[in-house]
Amino acid sequence: MRFTKMHGAGNDYIYVDCFRQPVPENPAQLSVRLSDRHFGIGGDGLILICPSETADARMRMFNADGSEAEMCGNGVRCVAKYLYDRGLVKKTAMAIETDRGTLGIDLELSNGKVQRARVNMGEPILAAARIPTTFPGDPPRDVPLEVGGRSVRVTCVSMGNPHAVAFVDSPSDELVLGLGPQIERDPHFPRRTNVEFVQVVSPREVRVRVWERGTGETMACGTGACAVVVAGALTGRTERRVVVHLPGGDLEPEWASDGSVYLTGPAEEVFEGSVDL
C-alpha cells in the first residue's frame, strides 16, 4: 500500500490515496498499527483520501487508537494539498466531504504547490446536547469540573467534534499530561472530548497545548484552535480572530461575522513510501 506522510503545524497523519488504490481493509486496526512511532510509520492517525459523489473528495480520519473522528482541521488542509499537488483536483477552491459536512477550502500556492490553506470549518455547535456534554448551558461556559483532585473550569464547544477549553495560567505538563486524559474520558462527555489548555497572551494571541481524543498530546489541533477562538470570544477573553501558538507552529482561526469559523494554516508533505500489509 502506498502512503504519504504529511502534517499541518506538526499534527501529522499517514495519508492513503483511495482514488488510485483500494480502500484498505479494517482502516481502524490499520491506523493503530501504522501510527505507532516505534513499530510503525508513526503519526497521529490515518487519513483516507477517497472519491466523493458530492464534493471534490471525501476525507475519512482515524485516530491513533483506531477510533474514527468526525473532522480534522489540519488533516483536511493536507488532503487539499495532496489533491492539488498531484493534479487530482486542479482548482484553488475546492470542497472536501467530511463527517462534519462538506467544507470549502481556498488554497495559497507557492511555486505551483500548496503551502497554506483557509478552510471554512462551519458554524460552531453550542447546544450542550449536540456537543455532546451533560454540563448545563448552551454552551456551558467556565463550568467547574472536578478531576484528578483538582478543579478546572471548562467551556464546551463542538466543531463537529467535542472540545473542552480550559483557560489556565500556563499549560503545564501537570495539566496537559495529568488532567488531559482524565478530562477526555470524564462522564460529562459521553463521546469523550478533546481538551485545550489555553494561556491568553493578549486578546489577539494565545498559547495552547492540546490533549486530543484518541491520540494524546498532539503538536497542533485545527478544530481545537477553532474551539479556542469561539470559547475565548464567548467568555470575553479574546477577540474573534487570534493567532494560536501551538508546539508545532501557528494557526489562525477567525470566528467571522457570518457565523462560520475560518481556519488558516500550513500544509506540508514529509515523505512518501509503501508498506506491506
Plain-language structure description:
The chain has helices at residues 27-35, 73-85, 173-184, 222-234; strands at 2-8, 11-17, 45-50, 57-63, 68-69, 93-98, 101-110, 113-120, 143-147, 150-158, 162-167, 194-202, 205-212, 216-218, 243-246, 249-255, 261-266, 268-274. By secondary structure, the protein is α+β, with helices and mostly antiparallel strands. The chain has an 18-stranded mixed sheet that branches. A hairpin with a 2-residue loop joins strand 6 and strand 7 (101-110). 48% of the residues are buried. The model has no long low-confidence stretch (mean pLDDT 97).
Computed Rg: 18 Å
Question: Could you say what the CATH architecture of the largest domain is?
Answer: Roll
- What is the makeup of the main sheet? 18 strands, mixed
Percent of residues in helices: 10-25%
Low-confidence stretches: none
CATH T-level fold name of the largest domain: Diaminopimelate Epimerase, Chain A, domain 1
Structural class: alpha+beta
